[in-house]
Every structure is written in structure tokens, then in C-alpha cells.
Amino acid sequence: MAFVGASQCTLAASSIMLSANHANLTADGSGTSFIPVKKPNYDVLTVNSSGKIDCPQNGQISFDPTSQVTGIGSIVDESGQLATVFDAGFGMGFTLHFGKYGENLKPIGPNHFHQCQLGNDYQVKATFYRSNSPSLIKAYENLAINKQVNLSIGDANQSKKDTATIIVNANLSFARNPEDYSCTLNDGGVRNIYLGNVSVHELETGAPVRRGNSITFALNCPQKANIQVMTMIYDEIDPTNFGANRRTLTNKSGADFAKGVGVQLVKVGDETPIPLARKENQATTMLALDGTQWRLDDNHFLEIGAQLIKTGDITPGKVESKAGILFIY
């Protein structure tokens, strides 16, 4: 009987933290300490601009926050809301809403189109918050903010466009230094799942074959911080293997390695194969939510297993895949 043997998957856990120099989100590679991008104990100020949009017939409107906004470090699209991180140690989040003032307003995120009508009521909400490590920012007194964002207005096919400008003026006072809410990742670094030997006959049925040990990750976060953690897994062997419908890790190639078979990672208890995210996201932005990331439960605990699945004509041999897992908050 032919076997797909010596099968294993290596999972490397890494952290992501906020760089104070350029206000970009960068991965430190192998550390286990985290610094949140937004901390709930920070002083927060919210200002609103409201008015009416003169939308063309069958028009659409989109939010274009990047033009005419200065000092941007990085942009984060968080569930349809925009958060902009600035170099000066503070952040500003914009959200565009539609509807009559005082009623439930519908938010749209940046570059997400929304049908609008002539004379639509709109509201732009800007929220300011502290960012970066507490040791690297001062307690601001009367920090003057004058920022401008643009709304791009057009018809249904965007052949005719116009721009509405929103000016946000505010004076911020961060009179106290923030607490340092950070999390610790237990058992970080490289972890292995050993799947053992699996017969080709088992795989030929087309059903996934679940084998091997599971591995667990736990983040210890201050309970009062109410920190939300996003998680993503990416393919270390083939960085182009990502997307909401890509769920099978690439097997190593070579004379000793099997063909027509791949490894899928699953959340224990869910058993649904985990979609693969784009690795580059970890060094640039906190991710555009594209279906390849998910929110960790409030216990900040994750258990992952692995399964083998047929991907084509099977040639017996070894299976070895490598993935990275990233926790972001």
C-alpha cells in the first residue's frame, strides 16, 4: 500500500506592534509582546460635520479620505470604518454616514460606494484617540487639528464626478499619559503538527483526512482593556497563495515530496478549513478585511489542527508545509 508519509505542518507565530517612528504597523518577527493600536482608556474626542449631498440622478458616493489629508502614517479599514494613524502620537478615525440627522445613519467605509439621492443628509464623524507606545508620546495640551477629507460624488457608472470637502477642526487635550495595555502570547515561536502516515487510498476518496496533534495559542491580555484580537494565517512557502477561497497550504517540492496533496489548517471545534491571508499585510497595514481574517473569541484562545486533502493526481511521498500565524490588536 502506498503512503503519503512523514507528514507535518510547521506554524510560526509572530506578533505585530506599532512603530513609533513612522506610525506604520510592522511585524517584529518572533516577539511575544504586543502594543495595541487603540487603547480604551485613552481620552477620546468626537466631532461631527453634517450637511446635504447634491447627488446626481442614480448617483453613487464614495469616501476618499487619502487625498488632501496630511501626516498620514497608515490607513486601517476596520469593519467599514476608517482609522488613520498619524506620526504625532495621536490617531483620527473618520466614518461617513447617510440618513436624516438624529436617525440611524448608515456608515460606509473608504472607497465603498453607496447609492445616494438628491439632497441626501450626511454626517462625517471624526474620532481622535491616542496611539503608539506610552513611553514615546507626551501628554498633549491644546493640540490643534485641522484636517480635510474629500467625498467623491458621481453617477452610477462614475463617468461624472464631483468632490465635496469636509474640514475637521478640533483642539485636543491629552492631559494624562496612557496606561500601557499590552498582551503576552504564550508558547510563541515555531510549532509543529505531525500528521503521520496516511494511505493514498484514504485520500483518493476526496474527503479530507484529519490526523495528528493540535496546537494551542493563548494571549494574556489585561481584562479591563477589553482588547479585540484579529487573527490571520498565511502560506510561508507560496506567498501568492492567499484569498478567501484559498485554504490549502503549499507542499514542499522535490523528489522526496508527494504531489497532488495539501495540508489544510482548521480551528478545533469548528473544523472548517481556514482561509489563507496575504503575508504582506502584516508589514503595511492592519488589513483590509477580506474574509481571510477573523476575530479571536473573548478568551483570546485558539486551538488549531490539520488535515490532508487531495488536490490532484497523487504521487506518494513526504508532505511538509509551513504557515505563519499573526495576532493583531
Name its key features.
single chain; 329 residues; mainly beta; Immunoglobulin-like; 2 domains; 8-stranded antiparallel β-sheet; 2 helices; 18 strands; 3% helix; 53% strand
In a few lines, what is going on in this structure?
The protein has 329 residues and is an all-beta fold.
Task: Produce the secondary structure layout.
Blueprint (H helix, E strand, L loop, with lengths): L2 E16 L6 E3 L17 E20 L7 E7 L2 E6 L3 E9 L7 E3 L5 E17 L12 E12 L6 E12 L11 E3 L2 E11 H5 L4 E12 L9 E6 L23 E9 L13 H4 L8 E3 L5 E15 L1 E12 L1
Parallel strand pairs: 1-18
Antiparallel strand pairs: 1-2, 1-12, 3-8, 3-9, 4-5, 5-6, 6-7, 6-8, 9-10, 11-13, 13-17, 14-16, 14-18, 15-17
Largest sheet: 8 strands, antiparallel
Q: In sequence order, what are the helices and strands, one letter per element?
A: EEEEEEEEEEEEHEEEHEEE
Please, what is the CATH homologous superfamily of the largest domain?
Fimbrial-type adhesion domain
Count of beta strands: 18
Give the mean pLDDT.
Answer: 65
* CATH class division of the largest domain: Mainly Beta
Can you tell me the overall shape?
A: elongated
Summarize the amount of helix as a percent range. under 10%
What structural category do the secondary elements indicate? mainly beta
Per the CATH scheme, the topology name of the largest domain is Immunoglobulin-like
Q: What low-confidence regions span 5 or more consecutive residues with pLDDT below 50?
A: 14-45, 66-87, 101-105, 132-137, 282-288
Please compute the radius of gyration using only Cα atoms. Answer: 24 Å
CATH architecture of the largest domain: Sandwich
For the termini, the CA-CA separation is: 48 Å
Total count of helical runs of at least 4 residues: 2
Number of domains: 2
Beta strand %: over 45%
